[in-house]
Amino acid sequence: MNRRDLLRLATGAGAASLLAACAGPGGDSPDESSESGTLSFAHWRAEDKEVFEKIIAGYTGAKIQQDISPSNDYQSTALQKLRGGSVGDAFTAFRGAQFLDIAEAGVWTDLTGQALLQKYEPALITAGALDGKQLGVPYQLVFNTPLANTDLIGKAGLGEAPKDWDGFLALLDKLKSQGVTPIAWPGGDAANAGQLLNVMVVNNAPADDALGKIETGEYKVTDDWFLTVLKQYQQLAPYFQTGATGTGSDAALALFAQGKAGLLATGSFQVAGVRKLGATFPVDLLAPITTTADKAEYEGVFNATFILGVNAKSSKQDAARAWIEHLSDPAVAGEYANGTSQHVTVKGVEYTNADLKALAPWLTKKTALAPRFQFTDLDIRGAVENATVQVAGGKSPEEAAEAAQKVIDQKK
Amino acid sequence: MKSRLQLLLFAVPALALYGGFFLLPAVQGLRYATTDWDGYSPSFTDVGLANLTDVVSNDDLFRNALTNNLEFLLAVVIGQTALALLLAVLLAARSRASTTLRALFFLPTVLSSVSVAFIWKFVYDPNFGLANNLLGAVGLDRFQSAYLGEESTAIFWVAVAQVWFHAGQMMVIYIAGINQIPEELYEAARTDGANRWQQFRHVTWPMVAPATALVIAYTSLQSFKAFDLILGLAGNPPRSGLDVLSTRIYTTFANGQLGYAAAESVVFMVAIAAVTFLQNRAARMAHG
Q1: Which of A137, A313, A324, B14 is most buried (CB neighbours < 10 A)?
Q2: CB environment A183-211: b (16+ within 10 A), e (fewer)
Q3: Chain B residue closest to A75 (CA)?
């Protein structure tokens, strides 16, 4: 090859690059790389990698490769990757905005009528359905309800969970008098700070879809019921750890795991993390009941997420469906659940993990589907959650609500 | 003639790459700024200048991000320029100690922004962090803070991390500038009885003016475009106190509003051009 040939080659490559850069709307054909023999399974749970590796090792179907992104990145960029078809022949999605975006882009395949659906609790997979079609199956069943160190709660002389707001505040007082932080709250981490909002609104809200109605403009954060929520955050502020608004998720987790906090205001999805940090105390869930006992409709909050689906842009849809069918087997789902300390939505799973057993009673309690995921606009969700953080940081509920409503009005 | 043709041919790959990966996306960005494209739908609607008008006149989140960005820029430019100059003046002389110290101060520059964010997250953590622990250890508990959790001052704490990150790099530019100052000027100043401060004030400072212009220009652009360090420290999406223009555009994009994000990018580009223009004017005026 002489210099002239090299030049021709370089010019050709440059032109090809230029054409590739022209890809715009409508460029959604499957990528050639997806023709290789390995099936891509895209998800965001790096902490589940080893358990999935074990499940993959026992799978006799296609060779599976896990494509794992950090959850924030997955939230932002997964759709663009999935749409290309090169990543995520089988994939997962968050409940709410991401699920809807992927549906709008036509990336889910319809699983309606598939035999694998028989393996799930019907009431727990509604978050994967849209317009009468089952597009995906939520695999994980988590409780977005504060974790409780029952040793510390027991020392506070509490036999059973408080049934109303005053009882909850009294518990926090007792915990504080023991010299521990009553609530560890990761107010500095947007993704986890908002988990507390779920339990704070479910009994205060005038409707189950109240947060969704804030987004559509039907309700406002300046309405009395949401001001009540913010005023209750104001009441909770003295019971959060020092500098709660600047505390990240890992630090809040560490405070709880070290036995320095009575409650961790996130959810059951952090039990595995608590154990990883060496905590040996018994753990349960304890939701603040924000009303009087007679007005409380829910005991806590659950979420069905990690929605499994088959990529409509993939050339290996049959293999992807077979992989999801494998994950839906109760024995395999049990291996996943017990290995990751996460409940699952699959029927007939035997929980052998001690924490899952301890939290199993919550499977039959009156819990609401986590309302925070009714938001589909990140700016609106951010504005509402930011109002709670600002109140915890000292701003008045009215001022915080006004500022948030202004953003909502602009964005809706 | 043949040689000119050959030169042009050699330039073709570079031009193609530049055109394909910079000019064309930039032009496409302008086009998308006038649409409501969500980034993945096969079609979109033209909205004319509505996105740009909204960004400029009716978007409090964008305005808040711009304010934060300008505060961040100002804090970093002042802090970084002052620290870099101070370090350069102290370490300009060649000695084993100064060489070691220069290397130490330059060290953060070689780290990735994500690593720097990780380090400073540990410093700023209100419960386990170095800053509050040190304050507590010396009895200054009343100055302990939530740092990144303080809505009104959080951006300045990120600025401190940014200054720590890049001051060493700017120090090198200043050291190069100081080493070019003729020794005779200092000798003359000393002969006239100038003390060290006067030597700095009347010799060093005017003579490093070109370096200062370069440092300020580079630092401003760096601060205006700051993204990964802020996202690393603030989390995604950042709360309002830490949201800057680049993170705002990222959030809008993640929100499925590519057309609007493109409009924000256009305004961002204009803002960067304005800052650069003002700096060039200021630098020219400073040099007479």
Answers
A1: A137
A2: bbbbbbbbbbbbbbbbbbbbbbbeeeebb
A3: B254
Helix A195-202 crosses helix A224-236 at what angle (to 10 degrees)? 120
Q: Per 3-state DSSP, what percentage of chain A is helix, strand, and coil (rounded to 5)?
A: 50, 15, 35
Partner B contacted by A382 (CB < 8 A)? yes
3-state class of B240 per DSSP?
A: helix
Q: Which residues of A touch B38 (CB under 8 A)?
A: 101, 104
Q: d(Cα B19, Cα B12) in Å, to the nearest integer?
A: 10
CA A28 to CA B42: how far, in whole Å? 8
Q: Which residues of A touch B13 (CB under 8 A)?
A: 7, 10-11, 13-14
Task: For residue A29, count CB atoms less than 10 angstroms from its CB and return exposed for 0-12, middle for 13-18, buried for 19 or more.
Answer: exposed
Quick one: closest CA in B to A380, which residue? B255
Rounded alpha-carbon distances, angstroms, from residue A410 to A143, A226, A290, A308: 33, 19, 30, 34
* Contact status, residue B252 vs residue A397, Cβ threshold 8 Å: no
* A258 interfacial to chain B (CB closer than 8 Å): no
Residue from A308, A225, A382, A167 nearest B61 by CA: A382
Q: How confident is the model over A81-133, as pLDDT tens digits?
A: 898 888 999 999 999 889 998 998 899 999 999 999 999 999 899 999 999 99
Residue-wise pLDDT tens digits, B176-222: 999 999 999 999 999 999 999 999 999 999 999 999 999 999 999 89
Specify the pTM: 0.86
Model pLDDT, residue A4: 55
CA A236 – CA A318 distance, rounded (Å): 51
Distances in whole angstroms, Cα of residue B239 to Cα of each of A77, B32, B230, B283: 20, 27, 11, 35
Return the structure tokens found at B146: 């939530």
A242 and B149: CB-CB below 8 Å? no
To test the contact with chain A by mutation, choose from B249, B251, B255 the residue with the greatest count of A C-beta atoms within 10 A, namely B255
Q: Which of A118, A109, A83 is nearest to A318 (CA)?
A: A109
**Of residues A11, A21, A406, nearest to B13 (C-beta):** A11
Three-class SS of residue A344? Answer: strand
ipTM exceeding the 0.90 mark? no
Listed residue (A388, A290, A322, A265) closest to A115, CA to CA: A322
Out of A83, A246, A248, whose CB is closest to B150?
A246
Tell me which chain B residues have a C-beta less than 8 angstroms from the C-beta of A384. none
Q: Which residues are A104's β-sheet partners?
A: none
